Amino acid sequence: MGETRALQPQAGPEGLDLQALYRDSNVAAALEALDRELVGLAPVKTRVREIAALLLVEKLRRSVGLEAGPPSLHMSFTGNPGTGKTTVALRMAEILHALGYSRKGHLVAVTRDDLVGQYIGHTAPKTKEVLKRAMGGVLFIDEAYYLYRPENERDYGQEAIEILLQVMENQREDLVVILAGYRDRMGRFFASNPGMASRIAHHIDFPDYSESELYAIAELMLAGMQYRLSAGAQAALREYIGLRRAQPHFANARSIRNALDRARLRQAKRLFERRGAPLTREALMTIEAEDVRASRVFAARTEENQP
Amino acid sequence: MRITQGTFSFLPDLTDAQIRAQIEYCLGRGWAVSVEYTDDPHPRNAYWEMYGMPMFDLKDAAGVMAEVDACRKTFPDHYVKVNAFDATLGWESLRLSFIVNRPKKEPGFGLLREEGAGRTQRYSVRAYATERPEGERYT
């Protein structure tokens, strides 16, 4: 009897208000930013919302004395390049900070080079320094599978992994680790490091963007840079995306950004060559079809079509 | 004799929570925090041993606290202090420094008198602890 009473939440007469907690924390703003800035990625957004809900409920539970220990927050983001892993990690850091699971909410992004040393005894201080910098925030390890190199048995990556595991286990309230990389390689990395796999609670998979999503991303980027596409350029860009996607080394949103940067370059060149002619604000903002169509991607197609 | 030194020399020893709060303050100001240790308590001993490198670009005190704890564990019977270095132009010096660990027993100092030319008397102090070689004091 006494036990059951102890488990009752010590709620005030007004009960527990999840809505108020949600409103008062800045989680709503972070989740909205995630929706606004990232096109598509429905499964990722769902998972982030689930995690946010879990943390919110956990916080409420803790406020009424229901202890379940700090939840494990280490995550793994897998997906092809340019699918928004780093951006989501940034938002994740904000969400964790808003909910009080991360004291400072900053993101430290590193790769193998920042963690692994070049000679014996170099790795531990290097890894520890990075960990100290990331304390109170989120450590984002990009292309984490490079840490483990089975082909070289004297590789120092293993040492970095061991230090990382120790901190991930013992200082869970100080640091959240997010590992990111390609899906298949991360799978192999986890298979060969079961200790790492078991300490990661949330695996989030980032799908590739569809053509219409990539186009929406392009529009979002252009709006951010105060450019716009003429009607002809819109059609050209849609065509470009379709062609570029089929080519090797396609890096989703990153490829789109690069394409837009090159289109801006060509637009500037076009305007510069016609200098002397009157120029309007409109012309400075508009990217024409020829700016897009001058891309190498279209050239490759015409070559293919030739006998 | 309890040695006092640095910013909070007039206060009793800080608790870990207080040390953490001080470090938070330093990091908030953008100062680089470092940990040093020694077993020579002489007030003129300005050159303590560094425990690791000074820590730049830290955001949270947890990293420094881990370092302080590691130093205390390695040198439980040494003096350990935390320094905060301000690198901004015009300061470029220590802004804060305080002791975070001390030996359990501090025997204090003996006064040495030296006879100089023409019956002049010169005085100096010597820590009883330093009569033994480095590393074996306070054990």
Structure in a nutshell:
The complex is a heterodimer of chains A (307) and B (139). Chain A has 307 residues and is of the alpha/beta class.
What does this 3D model show about the protein?
The complex is a heterodimer of chains A (307) and B (139). Chain A has 307 residues and is an alpha/beta fold. Chain A has 16 helices and 7 strands. In chain A, strand 3, helix 8 and strand 4 form a beta-alpha-beta unit. Chain A is globular and about 70 Å long. The N terminus of chain A is likely disordered. Chain B has a domain of 92 residues: Ribulose 1,5 Bisphosphate Carboxylase/Oxygenase. In chain B, the strands form 2 sheets. A 4-stranded antiparallel β-sheet of chain B has the order 2-1-3-4. A two-stranded antiparallel sheet of chain B has the order 5-6. Helix content of chain B is 19%, strand content 29%. In chain B, strand 3 and strand 4 form a beta hairpin. Chain B is globular and about 60 Å long. The interface between A and B is medium-sized, with 14 and 13 residues.
Main attributes of the structure:
heterodimer; A: 307 residues; alpha/beta; 5-stranded parallel beta sheet; two-stranded parallel sheet; 9% strand; disordered N terminus; B: 139 residues; alpha+beta; Ribulose 1,5 Bisphosphate Carboxylase/Oxygenase
